Every structure is written in structure tokens, then in C-alpha cells.
Amino acid sequence: MSAIGELINKTVMGVIAAAVFILVGVALGPTIVAAAADINATTMADVFLGGVVVTLAGFISFFYYLGIVLGGMAMIWKATKSD
Fold first, then answer.
1. Of 59, 81, 80, 75, nearest in space to 25 by CA
2. pTM to 2 decimals?
3. Secondary structure of 66-82 as H, E, C letters
4. How would you write the pLDDT of the chain (83 residues) with one tens digit per residue?
């Protein structure tokens, strides 16, 4: 009986940790997007590979939210996976 309770406890704590990870990530999202918006092509014109930095700046929000979603899914998968 103790093993079942321990498994349920680990699962609940893992799902709660994943939910907190997702919520904090989404709450910090606008800050990440605003920081990426400050990168402009005029400032980066004289920088080596500045065009690449400007191009990647357009994708930062996509990669950030993709990481949050995939990280949350991995955390929930690990929490619900039986050992």
C-alpha cells in the first residue's frame, strides 16, 4: 500500500512542478519578446553576422514558447511514467 501512495505522491508533485514551470514560462514570455524586439537591423548593420542576429531575433519568441511547451510535456511525461 505504501508503494502505491508513494507513486501517486510523485505523480502529483511532478504534475504540479510541470504546471508551475509552464505558468512561470508563459508569465516571462512578454519580457523575452520585448527584449527581442529591441534588436533592430540599423543597430546591427556594422556587426559581424548582424543579419543573422536580426533574423534569429524574429524567431526568439517561437523558440522560447516551443521550449516551454516541449519542456512541460517532457516533465508531465516523466511524472506520469511508471518506473
1. 75
2. 0.78
3. HHHHHHHHHHHHHHHCC
4. 688 888 888 899 999 999 999 999 999 999 998 888 887 777 777 888 888 888 888 899 999 999 999 999 999 999 888 66
46: its cell numbers:
556594422
Q: Which residues neighbour 44 within 8 Å (Cβ) at sequence distance 6 or greater?
A: 50, 51, 53, 54
Buried b (16+ CB within 10 A) or exposed e, 29-56: eeebeeebeeeeeeebeeeeeeeeebee
Record the cell numbers describing residue 33, joined without a space: 519578446
Q: In the chain, at which residue ranges do the beta strands (DSSP E only) sit?
A: none
